[in-house]
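Late entry, written up from scratch paper. The run itself happened at the end of the previous shift, but nothing got recorded in the book at the time, so transcribing now.
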Amino acid sequence: MSSTSIDLRSDTVTRPSPAMRRAMADAEVGDDVLDGDPTTRLLEQRVAEILGTEDALFFPSGSQANLTGIALGTERGTELILEANAHILHYEMAGVAGLMGVQIRPVQTADGRLSGDLVRAALRPVSPHLPRVSAITVENTHNLAGGRVTDLERLAGIVAVGREARLALHLDGARLWNAAAALGVPPARLVRGFDTVMVSFSKGLGCPVGSCLGLARDRRPAAWEIRKRLGGGMRQSGVLAAAGLYALEHHLPDIPRDHEHARAFAERLGSCAGVRVETPESNIVMIDLVRDRDDIQAVNSRIEAAGLRIAQYGPRRLRAVMHRDVDRAQVERAAAIVCEVLA
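Output as recorded:
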């Protein structure tokens, strides 16, 4: 594979910029497990300010932050309502069940978006023979649905049903920055009513690692305990937190450019034989092969040999994700490669 290949497998393939690396190297640090790391605390406070939550806690990964948020709102032997193709269900190694003893109750949707009515229909009647639902999780944007965005009206409906049923509400906002950019609203508008919200710095923002869990101030000690039990205590974590602070100031405003690139990529593929592409809502483009003769593994191998790396996401589907390390010329070239291979 050539070093000049275009990599659209994920928005996690970005490299820290020279300026981000300098910020990391110059970060003021302490021992976050013993008595606190000042840069990490600054990042947590900044995230809480952006999300409109009382506090936030830094994590090495989004999966760990999701698990902690869900653990705060559930009990062993209860159920978690989740969209049937959610990341937590398919790509987080059954941590909710294996580590927290919580059963997932998947809800089928047409487009990856839950609604208040769908959640209400999934609630079980009170019975000594049926497991009790304790929480709801929403993924926004929705990865497997092609980066689809759950809008404010749907979110409000879900929150209303959750509050009515006295359920905890967790938001998997790994790409919440993209959802906010797509809707043209501040991130805080998308998390109203949720008890906990995870946001990632390594997707979209170009950081090497890290996530935060927004939460109520009085839940921080319990979240700290769970994080430590999961192995998430870090020492001079300010080196990593500095990257997040830099990204929130310098990279967050660039998110809409990734959406523009996704639309341009999809439009270019619209005239390409052998594929079907829907107009993307954020930075993810799903490419469906429509000709029976096209073997997806063979097609993807030829695409890679031609200088483009994208991910296989099903027996007939490929996924391309736009990110800050690709420019418009590379986006155009990537689309041309797909069309040339399928031609």
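The radius of gyration is 20 Å.
(Scratch paper discarded after transcription.)
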